[in-house]
Target: Gfo/Idh/MocA family oxidoreductase
Amino acid sequence: MGLGQLRVGLVGTGPWATTVHAPGLAEHPGTVLSAVWSRRHEAATALAQAYDAVPATDLDELFEQVDALAFAVPPAVQAEIATRAAEAGKHLILEKPIAADLAGAQRLADAVTAAGVASLVMLTLRFAQQTRDWLDGVTQAGGWRGGGARWLSGALLSGRYATSAWRLSAEGGALADVGPHAFDLLDAALGPITEVLAAHRAEDDLWQVLLAHKGGASSTATLTLRLPVQPTVVEVAVYGDHGYRTLGRAGTAGDSYTALLDDFAAMVSSGITTHPCDVHRGLHLTRIIDQARALAG
Model:
């Protein structure tokens, strides 16, 4: 471990943990992957050995080994363990959605606030450099009247996430999985989302969500992970006094994770606990999901 490196434990051993979290933590100069925990101890052992980390046998052992935890597990599991970790003084790298329901998200956010630990949510698109540049331009220009987001994918029809139990559950699907990305970018571009005005979910989990923003703008989000669209369509757009500006999917998950770790290491080093993508952002996005689900019945 290098001087000043954060000891980070990884919770989870699925595809996202092995392809993004583990290599990202191991390769970043500000972090070291110190321990791995999973309900499948054999999987934790295999992943830990690949990075010279310790496979923790239980959560108490995991907490003892690390300064921070990164999560790549279903939202309900994340909320439960991350709340305990915050109470134990551990900094947190969270996945979206941060919890399976609004009550769990609120408990987690409260625990993070009470403990005074740093937290970031892995909003992949938001941490991409192209997104940051686009949002800077949009914010500087102002005068936007509305916008929209489209995320059309067949990710739950086939591929490595098609057997993901939480994504296939009533609490999962497109609204919980890609909704946070869409709502986050619309919110950042057009102003805070204050209300979900309407939401409709078709039988194939195709969501149409109408949003109101502080300042008077409105936007729409169209979301599905069950359309055989190749390649996946990801687009965010705003329109108003300065025309029509679009943002597509850019960069890689690895690049975004590196940018997140840059911010995370700096936060912990300086004692800063607030960030545009911290746990309170996760709570805000969970509240939007909760409202949309309620309106769609």
